[in-house]
Amino acid sequence: MDVKSGLIFQLVDLRPEGVCLRGQISFADLDIQEEDRFSFPAALEYDLLLTPLGQNDVLLRGALQARIAIVCDRCNSHGELQLQVDDVCHQYKDAFGKILDLTPDIREDILIVFPQHFLCREDCRGLCLQCGEDLNAGSCACESAAGAQPAAAESRPDPWQGLDKLKLP
Ligand SMILES: [Zn+2]
Ligand SMILES: [Zn+2]
């Protein structure tokens, strides 16, 4: 089976078994910019299969993988998150003889799984609101003294909840 890299190409013909598209694309090329709380230590990896569909259409299926470096929203420590898309599925009509640019759809697919909140770990306890102590390292003095509730993990919505839903077929 043919293997191509690159997400922009002219589609002349396509054998019934299709063509594999394997490679990497930088987030800059996807037009996704780094921000204060996240950056991209590596390019996004794609592993896709383009197959003919009917007379003139093509079907793109496959998976994407990326990792992003984050600063934790609760405790400000640095960490990494894995992003995974297993159900890439796009259809292109009248695709033959044209330049096919898969970049916008790949961009959209990875943005869907992009977290809204960044946590070093799901149960990060964050910093004490009063003294700023990292509560992952242990209890601070104010907690035991006043019985005060620190930035409790339970009081915030779980940012992974939406992600889990999206992974369902
Ligand atoms: Zn944290
Ligand atoms: Zn404290």
Give a verbal description of the structure.
The chain contains 3 helices and 8 strands; from the N terminus they run ββββββββααα. The protein is of the alpha+beta class and 169 residues long. The protein has 2 domains: 2-121, no CATH class; 123-152, no CATH class. The strands form 2 sheets. Strands 1, 3, 4, 5, 6 and 7 form a 6-stranded mixed sheet that branches. A two-stranded antiparallel sheet has the order 2-8. One zinc ion (ZN) is lined by residues 128, 130-131, 133, 140, 142-143.
Question: How are the SSEs ordered, and which strands pair?
Answer:
Blueprint lengths: L1 E3 L3 E3 L8 E7 L12 E2 L4 E10 L3 E15 L6 E15 L6 E3 L1 H10 L28 H6 L13 H8 L2
Parallel strand pairs: 1-3
Antiparallel strand pairs: 2-8, 3-5, 4-6, 5-6, 6-7
One zinc ion binds next to helix 2.
- The total count of helices amounts to 3
CA(first)-CA(last) distance: 27 Å
Low-pLDDT runs of 5+ residues are: none
Amount of helix: 10-25%
Q: What is the C-alpha radius of gyration, as a whole number of Å? A: 22 Å
Report the major sheet: 6 strands, mixed
**What is the N-to-C order of secondary-structure elements (H for helix, E for strand)?**
EEEEEEEEHHH
Spell out which ligands are present: zinc ion
Strand content: 25-35%
What count of domains describes the coordinates?
2
Jot down its keywords.
169 residues, alpha+beta, six-stranded mixed β-sheet, single chain, binds zinc ion
